[in-house]
Amino acid sequence: MDSLKQSVVKSVIGLGLFAIITSGLIATTQSLTKETIAEQIKKAQSKALIQIVPLDEHNNDLLSDTVQLADGGLLNLPHAADAYIARYDGEAVAIILPVIAANGYSGPIKMIVGIDTSGKVKGVRVVGHKETPGLGDKIEIKKSDWVMHFNGKSLTSHTDDQWKVKKDGGDFDQLTGATITPRAVVSGVHNALLFFKQNQHVLFSNVSEKGDTSGH
Questions:
Q1: 69 domain-assigned
Q2: pLDDT, tens digit, for every residue of 129-178?
Q3: Which domain holds residue 188?
Q4: Does residue 156 belong to any structural domain of this protein?
Q5: 63, 155 in Cβ contact below 8 A?
Q6: What is the value of pTM for the model shown?
């Protein structure tokens, strides 16, 4: 009987130790996985930002030099988000704004829009969408150079009426077989420029410090 009790106690202790060790391993794995994912996201963000403002045009850490934007407004942000400021020797040269184009063919289109201090577009990159493969997905830089056509454009180079696709009487080409997707992107870029015009002084008011401005 005593040997049976001892056997049961040993089994319980063994199972308890197994559970503790397993829980520890799972927690450690989750922690390491979370860190790896965060690092990959950071690398992807950095790569996209540097495509818009190359390394030879800024010498600050874009990922840490930010200003927080409120949700909603012209940028159509679903929640507060960071804009990234590019500086050279402490002087602001451009800002990269997060923008949501809400009216994509298959849903919202997530973009980042770089604008220099004169109000000209430095670059546009689509960072998330669900548009149709082979048609709407040509808004991606790896699929087409279509987004490159925004470079150098501004509110002074085009009137509000010209910030539309040609099918709507504007100056921007639509994609072959797709109009809704480029229409949404053109509108999103235009909204980014309007937001920049309204908030430029606030966006660049803090040198290498986090600021706060409204997304309206």
A1: yes
A2: 887 777 777 888 888 899 999 999 999 999 999 999 999 999 998 887 78
A3: 53-213
A4: yes
A5: no
A6: 0.76
Asked if residue 144 belongs to a domain, the reply is: yes
Written as one string, the DSSP assignment of the chain is: -HHHHHHHHHHHHHHHHHHHHHHHHHHHHHHHHHHHHHHHHHHHHHHHHHHHS-GGG--S-TTTSEEEE-SBTTTTBSS-EEEEEEEETTEEEEEEEEEEEEEETTEEEEEEEEEETTS-EEEEEEEE--PPTTTGGGGSTTT-SGGGGGTT--TTTS-GGGSSBGGGTSSBPPBTTBSHHHHHHHHHHHHHHHHHHHHHHHHTSSSSS-EEE---
pLDDT in tens, 60-72: 999 999 999 999 9
What's the number of domains the chain is made of?
1
Residue 66: inside a domain: yes
How far apart, in Å, are the Cα atoms of 78 and each of 44, 106, 149? Answer: 21, 17, 27
Q: What is the pLDDT of residue 184?
A: 93
Quote the CA–CA distance of 91 and 84 in Å, as a whole number: 14
Bridging pattern class, strands 107-116 and 91-104: antiparallel
**pLDDT tens digits for 35-69?**
666 566 556 677 889 999 999 999 999 999 999 99
Sign of CA dihedral 171, 177, 183, 186: negative
Are 133 and 141 contacting, i.e. CB atoms less than 8 angstroms apart?
no
